[in-house]
Amino acid sequence: MEEIRVKKQEIRETMANKIAAMASDAVSTKTTAIENQLFEFANFLESRIALLYTPIASEVDTAEIIRRSYMYNKIIVLPGFNPVRNRITLLKVDDPDKDLIKGPRGNFEPDPGRCKAVPLDCLDIAVIPGIAMDEKGGRIGSGAGYYDRFIPNLPITTRKVGLVFEDQVMPIIPMESHDKHVDIVITEKRVIYKI
């Protein structure tokens, strides 16, 4: 168990270095390609209520995905992180310019004073961040376990889609019993359906 945790931390550090070493124009080009893959993905296009995220370091930036989703008349839900209760709260964001505040993880999150809570069973699709993923949907996140606790509560009909750069796809992610998979992984080069 400890060996797996150490390996996962090594992967986080390796991926952080890999992303930091990428030229900003390469990151921008790859991010746009991932965005385009997502907007060609039928499950996303057909969804009405989409859970997205705002990134922390080494995660694919979703600012343009969020902006573009409003153009498609989607209801956008973003997670709020509660480090005391160690859980995610889902909040509807109507105006990212007004509804987001700096959260405890250093990224922007919905302001609970401005945004309404959304029941879990309303989500059509959940776009899940990751630091690394494999072709079977295994993922490594930031290490806090928020999404590993959250994913099992999603309705079975809610598609769980991970976004990572192709450089973040590994042959196999070391998984512990509490780690949860995504259904689909989207990179700048391909859409990978869990085998």
List keywords for this structure.
single chain, alpha/beta, Rossmann fold, 8-stranded mixed beta sheet, 3-stranded mixed beta sheet, 6 helices, 25% strand
Structural topology:
Blueprint: H1 2-21, H2 24-40, H3 42-46, E1 49-51, H4 63-71, E2 75-82, E3 87-92, H5 96-99, E4 100-102, E5 108-110, E6 116-117, E7 125-129, E8 132-134, E9 139-140, H6 146-150, E10 159-163, E11 169-170, E12 184-186, E13 191-193
Parallel strand pairs: 1-2, 1-7, 7-10, 8-11, 10-12
Antiparallel strand pairs: 2-3, 3-6, 4-5, 8-9, 12-13
Description:
- By secondary structure, the protein is of the alpha/beta class.
- It has one domain: Rossmann fold.
- Helices cover 31% and strands 25% of the residues.
- An eight-stranded mixed sheet has the order 6-3-2-1-7-10-12-13.
- Strand 12 (184-186) and strand 13 (191-193) form a beta hairpin.
- The two termini are 25 Å apart.
- The model has no long low-confidence stretch (mean pLDDT 94).
- Show unreliable segments: none
Give the strand order, joined by hyphens, for the main sheet: 6-3-2-1-7-10-12-13
Architecture, CATH level 2? Answer: 3-Layer(aba) Sandwich
Name of the level-1 CATH class: Alpha Beta
* Amount of helix: 25-40%
The average pLDDT is 94
Note the gap between the termini: 25 Å
Oligomer: single chain
Largest sheet: 8 strands, mixed
Q: Could you tell me the strand content as a percent range? A: 15-25%
What number of structural domains do the residues give?
A: 1
Can you count the beta strands? 13
**Helix and strand succession?**
HHHEHEEHEEEEEEHEEEE
- Nearest-angstrom radius of gyration? 16 Å
**Overall spatial form:** globular
Examine the coordinates and then state which fold CATH places here, giving the name of the CATH topology. Rossmann fold
> What structural category characterises the helix and strand content?
alpha/beta
